[in-house]
Here is the input.
Amino acid sequence: MRITEYAQRFQDKAILWQPPRQEIVKLRHLLALRARFKKVRKILGVPVGELDKFSEKIIKKTNTKVLDELDEQIREVEKQIEQPIHDDANLKRVHKIVTSIDGIGKVNSWQLLVHTNEFKNFDSAKKFACYSGRHPDGVAPFQYSSGSSTNSRSRVSHQANKKMKELLHLAALSAVQVKGEINIYYNRKVAEGKNKMLVLNNVRNKLIHRIFKCVKENRKYEKNYMPLIV
Here is the structure.
């Protein structure tokens, strides 16, 4: 009854859920297929290096052929992923905006399009940061507490999207290598003695806020962007 009363009082602020378009559903399935291929390739790729020690040429040759075939399958799936993005005006627009930000590549963009439902399911960067990892080393840190255990070590939330967190972490690692504001920020904080993971966490937050800001304003990221003063 209390939840019902709350919903009635604030129904004017409710954000209605929008089902994903068919293009997003297709992208989700293709990305899942790509992930399976990548996982199998990783499993088969590790033994190849180990087999060199034992000169098991036949097994190595067989594995190499399978790996080459998997690489070809992954490239084919990626072409199928890029096709609907190229053909759909909105997906193409958002993809160009997102990939204009340093550190954000095409794979990050694909996943962002799917997990945000074209940025319809999240109305703020902060909410998406929470969705992408709820623990101190994650994107949005949350302290774990239960009863009197207020100083317990924070834990990874089961509700967090660990795949998205991993991709954003890789994006942050890439962004700090590019000359510019983020690179300067990262090096300055590390020089001050800040923990590298903590600084990378802040970089991930910066990336998320830049992504959402640019998509909201419908513009590519500009390093020397000056907002219009009205």
